[in-house]
Structure formats: C-alpha cells, structure tokens
UniProtKB/TrEMBL annotation:
<keyword id="KW-0808">Transferase</keyword>
<dbReference type="InterPro" id="IPR007862">
    <property type="entry name" value="Adenylate_kinase_lid-dom"/>
</dbReference>
<dbReference type="GO" id="GO:0004017">
    <property type="term" value="F:AMP kinase activity"/>
</dbReference>
<dbReference type="InterPro" id="IPR006259">
    <property type="entry name" value="Adenyl_kin_sub"/>
</dbReference>
<dbReference type="GO" id="GO:0005737">
    <property type="term" value="C:cytoplasm"/>
</dbReference>
<feature type="domain" description="Adenylate kinase active site lid">
    <location>
        <begin position="157"/>
        <end position="192"/>
    </location>
</feature>
<keyword id="KW-0418">Kinase</keyword>
<comment type="similarity">
    <text>Belongs to the adenylate kinase family.</text>
</comment>
<dbReference type="Pfam" id="PF05191">
    <property type="entry name" value="ADK_lid"/>
</dbReference>
<dbReference type="Pfam" id="PF00406">
    <property type="entry name" value="ADK"/>
</dbReference>
<dbReference type="InterPro" id="IPR033690">
    <property type="entry name" value="Adenylat_kinase_CS"/>
</dbReference>
<dbReference type="GO" id="GO:0005739">
    <property type="term" value="C:mitochondrion"/>
</dbReference>
<comment type="function">
    <text>Catalyzes the reversible transfer of the terminal phosphate group between ATP and AMP. Plays an important role in cellular energy homeostasis and in adenine nucleotide metabolism.</text>
</comment>
<keyword id="KW-0547">Nucleotide-binding</keyword>
<feature type="region of interest" description="Disordered">
    <location>
        <begin position="165"/>
        <end position="185"/>
    </location>
</feature>
<protein>
    <recommendedName>
        <fullName>adenylate kinase</fullName>
        <ecNumber>2.7.4.3</ecNumber>
    </recommendedName>
</protein>
<dbReference type="InterPro" id="IPR000850">
    <property type="entry name" value="Adenylat/UMP-CMP_kin"/>
</dbReference>
Length: 244
C-alpha cells in the first residue's frame, strides 16, 4: 500500500485552500441532483459550477461504466461481458455501479447524476436503491432549450482535435476562420454535429425523456430552466432552484 504524502511537502497555499474547502463543505446540506437536457443544452457548462458550490460528486454513467470495466470490479466485469457480447448493460447493473460510486468520500454530500435515468423504469430502480438508505432525489434540473436554438448551437461547433479547444462560428469564433487560435492548425466538426443527426437525436431524446420528467414532476422535484439564456442567467436560475 502506498504511504500517505508528507504534509510538509504540500505547499502551504494548497493546504489552506483544502482546509477552507472542507470547512465550507462541512455545513452544506446533502443534495442529490439529476440533470436532464438534450445535446447542446449547457449541462457541461453548469455541472462544474453546481459541483463546486454544493460539494457534490459528478456521476456521468458512461464514464462510470468505463472506469468500472477498467478497474475490473465485479460489476465492471459483468458490464464488460455484456458489452463484449454486444448486449446493453442492464439497468440493475448501472444502478449497482451508481450505488458503489456514491459510497465514495467525494460523494458524502451527495451527487449530480448526468445521463441517467433515461427511462421511467430506470428512475424507479434508482429511487428504490436510494430508499434503502432513506435517501431520495432532491431536485431534477430540466434544461429546456427550443430545438431551433440547439441546431444553431450544435451545428456551429468546431474543435481543435489535438487539444480539445472548442469554438463556435457565432458565439466564440476563432481569430482566423477554420484555424485554431494557438497552433493555426485546421479545426474540425464532429461527425454528429450536423442538423440531420441532431434532429434524430432530439426526437429520440424527447420521446424517451419526457416520461422521466413527468415521473419526477409528480414527485414535485422538477425545476425547469430557461437554458437558452446566457450561461450566467442559467446559473442564477439553478441557484434559485437549489436554494443557494
């Protein structure tokens, strides 16, 4: 087992920041939050802000599955067997991986769940798992954006493949059209960032996700966000929804 780092080797400002973080987090109430929204709705912009403000862990189910497979946990091995056989990973398995994850110290104040549940059955299984510890979903943030706005957002995205730097032809254009600001190398569009693919994804999203939103709305925990607004305005709406 690796030995713990010697605190004498940790810079004083790093220690001070960590102490302040822990003091801040110690008084934060627990929160369990689900983010729901279509491609390009802004969840990726807002989730780090929510995570920092409320001392939560961020759980993206796709990343968690890959991590469990890589770590060869018992559930990860089961997931790998399913994927290798060309099958979907079962809802019970995904909920099990979430259950493992939320026991980590980083999730002691709660979590942000992104990408799950996608169906009412998954929502019911998630609720049943949380109920075993007398817990529940506290808030579902519904990132609402008109489809035509999403088309403009997504089809205008360009990236620099090596660094991941992103641009937008309207909202954040590069200094030279089609070129990365730092290297001058060509920018590319992801193959899914086109109107036809996006339309298909949006249709699937609305059909699949609306019942989940209705399910949680009946529990009184859904807050609808005007996610087409500028990011600072959306952040303000989220703060009001979460009582911060």
């Amino acid at each position: 087992m690796a030995s713990a780092p010697d605190l004498a080797d940790v810079p004083a400002d790093t220690l001070f920041k960590e102490v302040l973080r822990r003091l801040k987090c110690s008084v934060k109430p627990e929160k369990r939050i689900i983010l729901v929204g279509p491609p390009g709705c802004g969840k990726g912009t807002q989730s780090p802000i929510i995570k920092e403000e409320h001392c939560l862990c961020h759980l993206a189910t796709g990343d968690m599955l890959r991590a469990a497979v890589k770590a060869q946990t018992p559930l990860g091995k089961q997931a790998k067997e399913a994927m290798d056989a060309g099958k979907l990973v079962s809802d019970d398995l995904v909920v099990g991986i979430i259950e493992e994850a939320i026991k980590r110290p980083s999730c002691s104040k709660g979590f942000i769940l992104d990408g799950f549940p996608r169906t009412v059955v998954q929502a019911e299984k998630l609720d049943a798992m949380l109920a075993k510890d007398a817990a529940k979903v506290d808030k579902v943030l519904d990132f609402e954006v008109p489809d035509q706005v999403l088309v403009e957002r997504v089809t205008g995205r360009w990236i620099h493949p090596d660094s991941g730097r992103s641009y937008h032809t309207k909202f954040a254009p590069p200094k030279v059209p089609g070129k990365d600001d730092i290297t001058g190398e060509p920018l590319i569009q992801r193959k899914d960032d086109n109107a036809e693919t996006l339309k298909s994804r949006l249709e699937a999203f609305h059909k699949q996700t609306q019942p989940v939103i209705d399910y949680y709305a009946n529990k009184g925990v859904v807050s609808k966000l005007h996610a087409e607004k500028p990011p600072p305005d959306v952040t303000s709406e989220i703060q009001k929804a979460l009582g911060s």
